[in-house]
């Protein structure tokens, strides 16, 4: 089966080579010119992309970085709050274990004391 696929590739390559060789010099330049125009159009589209525009302007880049930093900070605080709340809840259920239970009780007293003060 690999011999057949190899033969087909050789046949396809030879057909592509024949097609390429059959083109005149003007036709090759025309094809090259068309491909260059397509590449240029794609680069223009990429250059007008919002991210590229943002990174090309220093004030926009600073504003974008500030917003990104604020989002990361807020996400970290919210994530830590959720994780610690779940941890305190789980630990409050473990008061049965002697060593951990005393430690958890003291932590819960501190947490409850702070809640009552507020």
UniProtKB/TrEMBL annotation:
Transmembrane feature ranges: 61-91
Pfam families, sorted: DUF5665
Region entry Disordered, spans: 1-20
Highest taxon of the lineage: Bacteria
Keywords: Membrane, Transmembrane, Transmembrane helix
Protein name as it appears in the record: Uncharacterized protein
Species of the source: Psychrosphaera ytuae
């Amino acid at each position: 089966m690999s011999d057949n696929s190899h033969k087909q590739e050789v046949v396809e390559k030879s057909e592509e080579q024949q097609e390429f060789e059959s083109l005149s010099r003007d036709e090759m330049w025309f094809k090259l010119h068309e491909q260059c125009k397509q590449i240029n159009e794609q680069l223009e589209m990429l250059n007008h992309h919002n991210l590229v525009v943002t990174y090309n302007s220093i004030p926009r880049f600073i504003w974008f970085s500030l917003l990104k930093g604020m989002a990361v900070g807020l996400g970290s605080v919210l994530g830590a709050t959720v994780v610690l709340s779940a941890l305190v809840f789980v630990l409050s259920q473990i008061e049965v274990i002697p060593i951990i239970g005393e430690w958890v009780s003291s932590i819960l007293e501190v947490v409850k004391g702070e809640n009552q003060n507020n």
